[in-house]
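User: structure tokens for Multifunctional fusion protein, please.
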Amino acid sequence: MKTLLFAFVLIIAGAGQLHASKNSATAYFAGGCFWCVEADLEKRPGVKEVVSGYSGGEEPDPSYEEVASGQTGHRESVKVIYDPEIVSYTTLLDHFWRSIDPTDPGGSFGDRGHQYTSAVYYQNEDERQAAEDSKARLDASGRFDAPVVTAIEPFTGFFPAEEYHQDYYQTHAVRYTTYRFFSGRDRFLESHWPKNQDSANKGPRSADNSSREDLQSRLSPIQFEVTQNDGTEPAFDNAYWNNKQPGIYVDVVSGEPLFSSTDKFDSGTGWPSFTKPLEPENIIEREDRKLFMVRTEVRSRQGDSHLGHVFADGPEPTGLRYCINSAALRFIPADDLASEGYARYEDLFQE
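Assistant: Done. Predicted tokens:
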């Protein structure tokens, strides 16, 4: 009976694939705690949505408790819905490697057992070959002291996890941040993918001259000066200081979401000002002692772009003013969110 039910689920899932939008594709990965993998991949440009769930076993529609017991054969996994015109499957693989420990055969960080091991689930021969090639390149790179052991297996089905697991990094931010810190995941990733060594993980900024030359060729002079040299654009003479359109603002270098028009206000300073970030995890704050004063600099996490500063003189509800250079931002109008790969933010602008 379970076998028949499982086959029925696969047929339904396949039918859904046939009617998918031509600008929408799916990919399936396992990398330990699905809260973390979902959070990392969902922030990538071109990714429309990431769903946490279970893959790899034969038990139909398992519960979290059943999977966590290690008896179902499933792994915690994610379904990535992406726009292949914006991000390729090969690039998704690169992002995936940069969010996991691919050398651990017994689990992932603090979570042990087969259910927390890593895997790429391929849906066709092209994906299998791309995954095998990508894994081989990573293994040969010498980045890790141990061999890359991530499994590459055929996709046999995906079962969404319980609702409370979805977007856990947003709905349970404190618990998620605490778990992630003590799991050791970020320490491992930062030690193996340092921001100035690998542009795909932390953004295109690099100490390497060729990377700076590439940025210089695709950014305007003021964009390069602000994001790469910590410059400041003129007040009241920039693209977005008086922009009142609904939409979101992303890093001009990396495309990571930073701020929303729903949190924008007129500070009278001549620069775009926001009460809070759209994605707090994409913002890094640092002490800035330049100009004979102590301020708090704001940078993007993936792009490592200088954005501006944050001050404690903003309006309620946060009392903060994120004073940001327009040159560090790219504005995505609300009507273009889906086509630009940021569909998950459309609900912010629904009446």
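User: Anything notable?

Assistant: The chain has two domains: 2-193, 210-349.
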